[in-house]
Amino acid sequence: MSSETLPILLITANVGSVFEDPAKLLKTWVQEFMDVIKKLEPVFLAVHMQEVGGKTYEKSMEYVQEFIKILCEASELANYDRIRIYLDEDYQSAEHFTALGNLYFARNSIKSLKIWNFLIHEWEDVVGKSIHTGSIESIPTKEKAKFPQNFFPECKWSRKGFLRTRWDIEGSVMDFVNIHLFHDASNLAACEEFPSVYCKSRRRALVHTLERFEKDTANSRAPYFVFGDFNFRCDTEGVVKKLTEALTAHRVANKSADSVKVQYRDSEGQNVLTVGKKEFTHADHQTQFKGEWLRKFDRELDPLREILFEYPIAFPPSYPFEEDPEMPQNYMNSRCPGWCDRILMSPAAKQLIASEEIKYSLIGEDSCMGDHKPVYLQFDLKPNQGSVESSGEIGEIIAAINDMIENEFAKQLDVKRHSYIQINSGGDGDVLLNGQAMIFRETTV
């Protein structure tokens, strides 16, 4: 095994909706997952999950435990004798809770397998099965963090952050980073410009995380695979312009701000596209967004392609699918479909891949997997590569991009200060900053 390439399988899955309706979705999800394992037969499997337990974690904990039990006891995984699972379940801690889950399975054919201890900065041999649940803050074989609170839109905590592990697989070292970035809260705000306010916040958090790794002298740098729910969205402004070239816009407003919509109608007065805060509906919704034309509007990663590599995407948008088993290929009318779920890697990690014969696709394309379809990358890993050194130039580029982003946010903050009002204390709905309440427009919700 030491001289042969190693089949590796990486999977990212936002499983929030699966745990909100496990009776309807969980069995199918597990079956599709196992089918991929049987088909590809990896010697090492890394699964990164987001929104583990759904939005009401306290009600879903029993299903999470049952889910882990099903995976660990599955016949398809019987030959995976070394397992490491990290589930962030401490939902009562707003400061730390991310709802991220990292699951790793290694076959008995792997002779040398080690995991990094981030506390004592040393390697540990991986033996047997270890499942870490509940509060995992003190577990030393992982690094976990939420993004700084001022990174969050409206400065409101949500379950967004990263969870990192480091592995030595047959003499080749790499980090596996699970990440969950901010979503688009309003389609109307996303339509205003590109990059949207949400895109800018996502990019800021992602680059901040990469620079954190670059500056981690205690653990040193290592090649990394970053896979999770990046919440990357299409250039909504551009998509709307493309879809409405010969249409006229009509603003429809009710008393509630959340019910404001823009309807784009043809010459006969028929609605073709409707955009609301949480509505995005096209008259030909189920075929329109599966065309190749949409790919050119997938632009969020473009400014970062020097520092993050991704194999070409040849699959439909991974979100937002209907959660109805009778409509497994249909998109919901809530958002413009987008490639939220991705598997990216540093240039150094790309050097660990033995050939371009890879598979990058969706799991369960013809089955209901919840609102997100899982995404997988299968490749052959070169053994005995040590820790491939990243170019110093990459670190300089990351630092330069981060400085540019932070300078832009600082300028925006200066502009917003003109909209502050002085207060003594904030009410329940106020966002406080240095004793002041920030007034937010719809575009920053």
TrEMBL record:
Instruction: Look up the record and give one Gene Ontology term from the biological process aspect.
Output: phosphatidylinositol dephosphorylation
Q: Tell me where in this chain the Inositol polyphosphate-related phosphatase domain is found.
A: 4-387
**In the record, what terms sit under GO molecular function?**
inositol-polyphosphate 5-phosphatase activity
Q: Which EC number(s) does UniProt give?
A: 3.1.3.56
- Keywords for this entry? Hydrolase
SMART domains under this entry? IPPc
Q: Where is the signal peptide, in residue numbers?
A: none
Write down the Pfam families for this protein, in alphabetical order. Answer: Exo_endo_phos2
UniProt similarity note = Belongs to the inositol 1,4,5-trisphosphate 5-phosphatase type I family.
Q: What name appears for this protein in its UniProt entry?
A: inositol-polyphosphate 5-phosphatase
